[in-house]
TrEMBL record:
<dbReference type="InterPro" id="IPR006675">
    <property type="entry name" value="HDIG_dom"/>
</dbReference>
<keyword id="KW-0808">Transferase</keyword>
<dbReference type="Pfam" id="PF01966">
    <property type="entry name" value="HD"/>
</dbReference>
<dbReference type="InterPro" id="IPR002646">
    <property type="entry name" value="PolA_pol_head_dom"/>
</dbReference>
<dbReference type="Pfam" id="PF12627">
    <property type="entry name" value="PolyA_pol_RNAbd"/>
</dbReference>
<keyword id="KW-0460">Magnesium</keyword>
<dbReference type="InterPro" id="IPR050264">
    <property type="entry name" value="Bact_CCA-adding_enz_type3_sf"/>
</dbReference>
<dbReference type="InterPro" id="IPR006674">
    <property type="entry name" value="HD_domain"/>
</dbReference>
<protein>
    <submittedName>
        <fullName>CCA tRNA nucleotidyltransferase</fullName>
        <ecNumber>2.7.7.72</ecNumber>
    </submittedName>
</protein>
<keyword id="KW-0547">Nucleotide-binding</keyword>
<dbReference type="InterPro" id="IPR043519">
    <property type="entry name" value="NT_sf"/>
</dbReference>
<feature type="domain" description="HD">
    <location>
        <begin position="264"/>
        <end position="383"/>
    </location>
</feature>
<dbReference type="Pfam" id="PF01743">
    <property type="entry name" value="PolyA_pol"/>
</dbReference>
<keyword id="KW-0548">Nucleotidyltransferase</keyword>
<dbReference type="InterPro" id="IPR003607">
    <property type="entry name" value="HD/PDEase_dom"/>
</dbReference>
<dbReference type="GO" id="GO:0004810">
    <property type="term" value="F:CCA tRNA nucleotidyltransferase activity"/>
</dbReference>
<keyword id="KW-0819">tRNA processing</keyword>
């Protein structure tokens, strides 16, 4: 595609960004004085053209890593070389972080999980090996020359994702780029070109050589974007999801001829969107845990689906089964134990609200709901509300009112009883003293009895708790 000229308004955006960050001209002059080329490249250039705010600065240069360090040594406030093997040196200048990478022509070996790093000699060659044309634009420093060899501006105008070289070559160089296509679809609202989609579909299995950590990081960026559903649909349609998150396409259950159950896949995507709309209830947003939980909350349904007499479809215990499946998948993707525990807890509890009918919540039930949710209570509120996707307005309003009442009950009891830190009315030392027993399983048994008692009856005095404990022990 022939390059599109840089319009005056876009030129003005780029110049304004460069003027607002004078350190860019400084570092460009340093490299020029040392006889090396330096250019801003990739996302920062794309975002400057789009008028999107950006804080990360990526550079490419003709200098080799050791030369980068030498040039920047007296200018940068800090230097780190954790990416040296890939040709990348990191710098900090004031509040800004920079990554400067030697011109590269990377490629994956057929059986390798890591790219074979090959240094290049020209900016043109470096840009040709970028993932997409919208990321293959550059700004030379300090001259501010804008470089667009592969039609990135035209693709921005068309809101399309194309590769600088053939998609097959680009995805062979780095198969993770296929996931990046889905991520940019979600982040930018762009559409992958037909030839890109076709190559992703043909080459989906190539993703298996990419490490779980890189796949997880790319999935996180997709999920935390403004439109994650757009990217997820592309992953499913091309078969990429089958390689890294097979539980998602498995939700596309064959619907029976009488349409006796919802489309679980579409339902899950709607729940994700509705959960995102409620994220303002949380202290920070976007929130990865609630988005993972919303997306995966029904993954237990395919394994638990049963057609019973009368034409009813059931998914008994899909919450428990789904929580176990989520743990296994998230562990395989190398998520932290904290994230795995939080997501699994939300999935396991997402049906709890519906187990209490239309609002007949006892104080005991409210206490148990809060205790089991623990520090995930606010996320559980969001997931439970988002899980209502019925088109029946009367039913939707009834569920909303019922959950409003539950949250009100929680707030009232929380003020009265400090629900967030429910403990038995006697601690372990008191239990051992009262019963005359040593540390061991019996103490835990008594502790659990008192905790259940606390859930059922609320706070007790020490005398009443002691009396109940002794009665329990005598009848044991």
């Amino acid at each position: 595609m022939p390059p599109t000229s840089l319009t005056p308004d876009r030129r003005a955006r780029i110049d304004a960004e460069l003027d607002a960050n004078p350190f860019l001209a400084e570092v460009g002059a340093l490299f020029e004085a040392a006889g090396h080329e330096l250019a801003i490249v990739g996302g920062p250039v794309r975002d400057a053209v789009l008028g999107r705010p950006g804080n990360d600065w990526d550079f490419t240069t003709s200098a080799r890593p050791e030369q980068i360090e030498s040039i920047a040594a007296s200018w940068a406030d800090a230097i780190w070389d954790i990416g040296r093997e890939f040709g990348t040196i990191g710098l900090r200048k004031g509040d800004h972080q920079l990554e400067i990478t030697t011109y590269r022509t990377d490629a994956y070996d057929e059986a390798s999980r890591k790219p074979e790093v090959r240094f290049g000699d020209t900016l043109d060659g470096d840009l040709s090996r970028r993932d997409f044309a919208v990321n293959a634009m550059a700004i030379r420093l300090p001259s501010r020359e804008f470089v667009d060899l592969f039609g990135g501006l035209a693709d921005i105008d068309a809101q399309v994702l194309r590769t600088p070289v053939t998609p097959e070559q680009s995805f062979s160089d780095d198969p993770l780029r296929m996931m990046r296509a889905a991520r940019f679809a979600a982040q930018l609202g762009f559409t992958a070109a037909p030839e890109v989609v076709a190559a992703m579909t043909r080459m989906a299995e190539r993703l298996e050589i990419v490490s779980a950590e890189r796949i997880r990081d790319e999935l996180d960026k997709l999920l935390l974007s403004d439109r994650p559903v757009d990217g997820l649909r592309l992953l499913v349609e091309t078969g990429l999801a089958e390689q890294m998150l097979p539980e998602l396409p498995a939700l596309i259950l064959e619907r029976d001829e009488h349409h006796r159950h919802k489309d679980v896949y579409e339902h899950s995507l709607i729940v994700l969107e509705q959960a995102i709309a409620l994220e303002d209830r949380l202290e920070t947003a976007p929130d990865l845990v609630i988005r993972l939980a919303a997306l995966l909350h029904d993954i237990g349904k395919p394994r638990t689906r049963r057609f019973v007499e009368g034409g009813t479809v059931t998914f008994h215990h899909h919450d428990v089964v789904g929580a176990k499946m989520a743990r296994k998948r998230l562990k395989a993707l190398r998520y932290s134990n904290d994230v795995i525990d939080q997501v699994a807890t939300l999935i396991e509890l997402h049906l709890r609200f519906h187990g209490y009918g239309s609002g007949e919540w006892t104080d005991s039930a409210v206490r148990r709901y809060v205790r089991d949710a623990g520090d995930q209570l606010e996320r559980l509120h969001i997931l439970t509300r988002a899980d209502c996707t019925t088109r029946n307005q009367r039913k939707a309003l009834r569920l909303q009112r019922t959950y409003d009442e539950l949250e009100h009950r929680i707030a009232v009891l929380a003020e009265q009883e400090e629900l967030g830190s429910i403990r038995p009315d006697l601690d372990g030392a008191q239990i051992m003293s009262i019963l005359g027993i040593e540390p061991g399983p019996e103490v835990g048994e008594a502790y659990r009895f008192l905790l259940d008692l606390r859930m059922d009856r609320g706070p007790l005095s020490e005398a009443d708790a002691t009396e109940a404990l002794l009665a329990f022990w005598a009848a044991r």
